[in-house]
C-alpha cells in the first residue's frame, strides 16, 4: 500500500448529515474504509449567533430567492483551517467557473493533500466571500442543480479514484475516458454472441498488439463522433492529423 499521506476533504454544507451518503458507497466508500482519505462535513449554521441559526438573507436589489451570508462562512472556514493547519484550497462549484476537466482534477490531486469544498445553495453566495476566500471555481456543465452537494460529491469521486490503491486495477484510472485526451473505446464481455451481435473478432484473437491498435482506433472514432471538440484538442497536443497518426 502507498505511504502517501491520505488526503483530507472538508465540506461546508447545510446538510452535513446527508452529504456523506452521497459518497459512502462505491469507490469513495471503500477508500474511506481503507483509510485512504478522510472526510468531514461542516455546517455553517454552527457558526451563527442568532437563535434561528440564520445562514441566508434576501438579496440587495430585490429579486427571488435568498443568498448565503458571508459571516457564518468565514467563521466556518477559519475553524476548518485551524483544525487542518494547512493552506488547502477552498473550491467552489459554480456556473461562473471554468468547465471541470480531468486535467484539473489531476492537477489538484498532485498539488495538495486534499481540499475544502463549499456547497452553495439558494441563489448563491455573497460575492464578497467568493472574492476574498475562494481559491478555485469550477463548473460541471451547463445545467442547474438545487445545491452544490451533488457537484462536490462528483468532484471528490473523480479525485479519489486517482489515489494509489483505491481502484482494484491500477490501469483502470489511466485507461478511462479523458485520461489520454480521447473518449474510452467500447467494451464487451460474456457471452460472445448477444441478440445475434458478436464480440469484435479482434478482441478474441489474443493478439495484444492488434487489440491495442483496435482500441485506439475506436477511441478516435468515438471521440470524433460524440466529442469532436476533444479530438481537436488531442490533435493539437499530440501533433496528429485527422487520421490519428503522428505528423512528420
Automatic annotation (TrEMBL):
Record-linked Gene3D superfamilies: 3.40.1280.10, tRNA(m1g37)methyltransferase, domain 2
CDD domains named in the record: TrmD-like
A Pfam short name: tRNA_m1G_MT
Catalyses which reaction(s): guanosine(37) in tRNA + S-adenosyl-L-methionine = N(1)-methylguanosine(37) in tRNA + S-adenosyl-L-homocysteine + H(+)
Subcellular location: Cytoplasm
Keywords: Cytoplasm, Methyltransferase, S-adenosyl-L-methionine, Transferase, tRNA processing
Function: Specifically methylates guanosine-37 in various tRNAs.
Protein name (Swiss-Prot/TrEMBL): tRNA (guanine-N(1)-)-methyltransferase
Naturally occurring in which organism (per UniProt): Limnobacter litoralis
Amino acid at each position: 500500500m502507498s505511504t502517501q499521506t491520505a488526503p483530507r476533504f472538508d465540506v461546508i454544507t447545510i446538510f452535513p448529515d446527508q452529504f456523506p451518503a452521497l459518497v459512502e458507497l462505491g469507490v469513495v466508500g471503500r477508500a474511506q474504509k481503507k483509510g485512504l482519505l478522510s472526510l468531514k462535513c461542516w455546517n455553517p449554521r454552527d457558526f451563527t449567533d442568532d437563535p434561528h441559526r440564520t445562514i441566508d438573507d434576501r438579496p440587495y436589489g430585490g429579486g427571488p430567492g435568498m443568498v448565503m451570508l458571508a459571516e457564518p462562512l468565514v467563521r466556518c472556514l477559519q475553524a476548518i483551517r485551524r483544525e487542518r493547519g494547512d493552506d488547502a484550497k477552498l473550491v467552489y462549484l459554480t456556473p461562473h467557473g471554468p468547465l471541470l476537466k480531468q486535467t484539473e482534477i489531476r492537477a489538484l490531486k498532485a498539488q495538495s493533500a486534499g481540499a475544502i469544498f463549499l456547497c452553495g445553495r439558494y441563489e448563491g453566495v455573497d460575492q464578497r466571500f467568493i472574492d476574498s476566500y475562494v481559491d478555485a471555481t469550477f463548473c460541471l456543465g451547463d445545467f442547474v442543480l438545487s445545491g452544490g452537494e451533488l457537484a462536490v460529491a462528483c468532484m471528490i469521486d473523480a479525485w479519489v479514484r486517482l489515489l494509489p490503491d483505491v481502484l482494484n486495477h491500477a490501469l483502470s484510472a489511466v485507461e478511462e475516458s479523458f485520461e489520454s485526451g480521447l473518449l474510452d473505446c467500447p467494451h464487451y464481455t460474456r457471452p460472445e454472441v448477444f441478440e445475434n451481435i458478436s464480440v469484435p473478432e479482434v478482441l478474441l484473437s489474443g493478439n495484444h498488439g492488434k487489440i491495442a491498435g483496435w482500441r485506439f482506433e475506436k477511441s478516435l472514432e468515438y471521440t470524433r463522433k460524440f466529442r469532436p471538440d476533444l479530438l481537436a484538442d488531442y490533435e493539437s497536443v499530440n501533433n496528429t492529423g485527422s487520421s490519428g497518426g503522428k505528423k512528420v
